[in-house]
């Protein structure tokens, strides 16, 4: 069953559209914010522009990282989150359930949906990081030369780790983005157990994030917004408690809704 769903994923246009949207943000950011940067050693007293200080995941004021994070809940839901809703509309699921166990279908769908979202969310960051290393010298960031970057406690996770092992720090943020991508796609998939409309399913994690961000802003807790703490240089601050609350909370909510929906189809 897993092979069948993987085959269908690789033949879905929405999977490649999602990847292209992410890659557009990645390459556009490199072109507008990195490609034409010129180092001024006399002015800076050293190397200010490195992959660790200019890659897309660092955040800052550029439009493209903001656009990428804004669209990310929708982008990662495009590859596979609406597959069950589509199968229900076309009557394909009864055919599958007759031939194979429904439990195998749902297990494979949940796992591959998470994996597809993880890849879709992290690939643009990995591509941009590669381009950044092609452009800039591989020199670790310096606390003095790069002192304009507020990578301190409260504005990034593990700030000391960033200066001692910057590449691992970047990989941590890529992993974190991938996990949130998988969680958002899982939430969208769970909503498909309730609604069989593709637009409702794909937009559901975006609506969830909008509601959470509105609540956090109303409470004066902007650091709890995922669009902030998923950036290495969090503009509104980074909160461990908020990150864990959303990552675990939304995943548990998704599993509960998904499992309750699966019970209608799994008889054994």
TrEMBL record:
Keyword Membrane carried by entry: yes
Chain segments annotated as transmembrane: 15-32, 64-84, 104-131, 170-191, 198-220, 240-262
Q: Which UniProt keywords apply?
A: Membrane, Transmembrane, Transmembrane helix
Domain of life, per lineage: Bacteria
Q: What is this protein called?
A: ABC-2 family transporter protein
The scientific name of the source species is: Bacillus halotolerans
